[in-house]
Automatic annotation (TrEMBL):
Its cofactor is Mg(2+). Binds 2 magnesium ions per subunit. InterPro entries: ADP-ribosylglycohydrolase (IPR050792), Ribosyl_crysJ1 (IPR005502), Ribosyl_crysJ1_sf (IPR036705). Gene3D superfamilies: ADP-ribosylation/Crystallin J1. Keywords: Magnesium, Metal-binding. The lineage of its organism: Bacteria, Bacillati, Bacillota, Bacilli, Bacillales. This is Crystallin. GO terms for molecular function: metal ion binding. It comes from Ureibacillus sinduriensis BLB-1 = JCM 15800. Mg(2+) binds at residues 68-70, 316, 318-319.
């Protein structure tokens, strides 16, 4: 039986693995990935920007196992839990989490130096600093504006861990915490992914259980997108469709919920052009979570194949890889992870996964045990 500690380690390593596999091809379409790489299968992949001679800003580097902000923020959230040793809400995002990303230096592998995570973050994640430090907003009203993306969902997995086996509690805590960061369907995806991770920690959890949990808790466009993509993935699995066909059909399925398509780059020609891209909506969904669940369904929960299909499908490849990895890492622990990959991830990113997982698992178990004690007391009260 896989131990709780091994599952925690599985989540952290698997999220980093999906992140690092997807990072060198992020923002390419599936067709561009196929043209440049065929089908990416290794961490030892050269970043397409370096390979093509494109300008690389701020001395950034990727490839060879380098993680991005997705994993850095997962680890930052773990550190908040290790400090607080309790459940979190938007006030904790505004306080300790903001300190972790904006005021405490850590090693940023893409820059090959120690600096603040904030220096690496994309605009929607910098929004946390703007709202909670510069604007000094009420923390629960921090998630404002039209910067809807997968920002909160990409780092929310630790909330699933501290609510292991209780998806509803994970969903509620993720919504409470990430409301300081996002609104609309970006926030909804964070709640659902945390619930998926919590469900995957349950003994004998299967892919069907995770999908059923996601559908049961998801709201609005997020719910409909997950239903549409996981149903279609199940159908495609039965008829043994080719990978190229699978991606094309899944992208057709997500299109009504996410209108951007392959045009994910921000460029001067798009400035001032009316668009629904990233606009808060009851009808839309982020792409990454429904796609991650669909690839897990299509591959019957196969560990590497689900991650690799996700990161080769194009667009936000690193975050799709993170979400697939977090769910399957929670389900399987470390048993399917190749030691060569763990070694490269550890060396390249200066990470001690054993220490990171052990310390966070200890904090998570303390929180879970306290929850169990409270539940037992409540049962006693009800019984009397």
């Amino acid at each position: 039986m896989t131990t709780f500690e091994d599952r925690v380690k599985g989540v952290l390593i698997s999220a980093a693995l999906g992140d690092a596999l997807g990072a060198p091809v992020e923002k390419l379409s599936r067709e561009e990935i196929e043209q440049k790489y065929g089908y990416v299968t290794t961490l030892k992949t050269r970043w397409y920007k370096e390979a093509s001679g494109e300008e690389v800003t701020l001395g950034k580097r990727r490839g060879n196992g380098i993680i991005t902000d997705d994993t850095l923020m997962i680890l930052a959230l773990c550190r908040v839990y290790k400090k607080e040793k309790r459940h979190l809400d938007a006030y904790d995002l505004a306080n300790e989490f903001t300190k972790e990303i904006a005021f405490r230096k850590t090693f940023i592998p893409e820059f090959d130096r120690e600096t603040f995570i904030l220096d690496r973050l994309f605009y929607p994640e910098k929004h946390i600093f703007l709202r909670h430090v510069l604007a000094n907003c009420e923390p629960r009203e921090g998630g404002m504006g039209n910067m809807v993306n997968c920002g909160a969902a990409m780092y929310i997995a630790p909330i699933g861990i501290v609510n292991a086996g209780n998806p509803l509690a994970a969903y509620n805590e993720a919504i409470a915490f990430a409301s300081g960061h996002q609104v609309s369907y970006g926030l909804e995806a964070a709640g659902v992914l945390a619930a998926c991770v919590a469900c995957a920690f349950s003994p004998d959890a299967a892919v069907e259980d995770v999908v059923e949990t996601a559908i049961a808790l998801a709201k609005d466009g997020t719910k409909q997108a997950i239903i549409a993509l996981t149903k279609k993935a199940g159908e495609l699995k039965k008829i043994h469709s080719s990978y190229k066909e699978v991606v094309a059909i899944l992208h057709e399925c997500i299109a009504p919920f996410s209108p951007m398509g392959d045009d994910v780059h921000r460029k001067i020609e798009k400035v001032g052009i009316p668009s629904n891209h990233y606009t808060p909506s009851r009808l839309f969904s982020i792409e990454e979570l429904p796609l991650a669940l669909a690839f897990i369904v299509y591959n019957d929960g196969g560990y590497y194949k689900s991650i690799l299909d996700g990161i080769n499908s194009g667009r936000d490849t690193d975050s799709i890889g993170v979400m697939v990895g977090a769910i399957l890492g929670a389900m399987y622990g470390t048993k399917f992870i190749e030691e060569e990959d763990v070694h490269l991830l550890s060396k390249t990113n200066r990470l001690d996964f054993d220490a990171e997982a052990a310390s966070f698992a200890e904090a998570a178990k303390e929180i879970l045990e306290r929850d169990l004690q409270i539940a037992r007391k409540q049962e006693g009260i009800i019984g009397h």
